[in-house]
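Quick one: structure tokens for this chain, please?
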Amino acid sequence: MKAAVLHAPADLRVEDVARPVPDAGEVLVKVGAVGICGSDIGRVMVTGTYRFPTIPGHEFAGTVEEVGPGVTHLVPGDRVAVAPLMPCFDCGWCRAGKFSLCDDYDFLGSRRDGAFAEYLTAPARNVLKVPDNVSLEVAATIEPAAIILHGIHKLDLKLGDAVAVVGCGALGFFALQFAKLSGAQPLIAVDVDDDKLALSRQIGADICINPAKEDALAAVRAATGGRGVAVSLECAGSAPGRDLSILIAAKQGTVMLYGTAYGDVTFAEKAFARMVREELQVVGSWNSYSLPFPGKEWFDIMELLRTNRLLVEPLITHRATLEEAPAIFKALKARTFGPYAKILFKPNG
């Protein structure tokens, strides 16, 4: 089969490799669509995976091609989404159902071969059937959507709470929709990209703010009667985004941190003072797994998609072949790719 194989940081090659065979309790999945996660850019181009060679890719959906011994709830032809985390199920965190905090986990696309390939194998318990009305392209975005919903489940978000989403890429796209479904009012989108703000308004943002063009703090204060937002969802993964998320929060408000840091993190003096003096709650959220495995998040999103209450298609801006992967990753690292939201590879055409 064809696969995009990472041999070293920034050394991604499309090659012919052996098609895997499912062991007991596994299924072979024919990949229909696989997305590029923001973390994939750093993983492929800078830090590398946990071993080499590795096939990256963990946001994906496809069709069951073959089932291994002992698999009874799936059959060839089933359309499926796959959760990439493989927890140990034995540590204290796993026994408590907090699989995101597993002490000894495996992971498709970084610790073992992932979905930048025509086929891959996965544990059958990680494989979920996709509703008939949901395309495989849409199903490939369930994993990043579940990451956001995992954090939303941690919050006491009340009807009428003012909510801001800082950073309106793929994660922010879902954060806006889940906040809207939770009753946020007003719902504020903050990003330096006007195209992302236009998409944010399309999916329900009441107010869109571009910090490069206006005083974002003043604009949020004006929209909230001077109080700030009850909940600030930080999806930018940048120092300015973290600071702004804190500065726009109301007294005793909550700041949810989703964005990943790739170096030491410092806060602006004013931001740190607000955390302390105005008694903010700063909450971290990691991954998307809970009971029942792979998580309530995954099953909730499946139902939202089945009932057409979660919009995904406008997020998908680019579709590419697997052969284009090395060039696309180089352009993403160099920031020369151009405007995009979610890029999908279609390994099987």
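The first strand starts at residue 2 and ends at 8.
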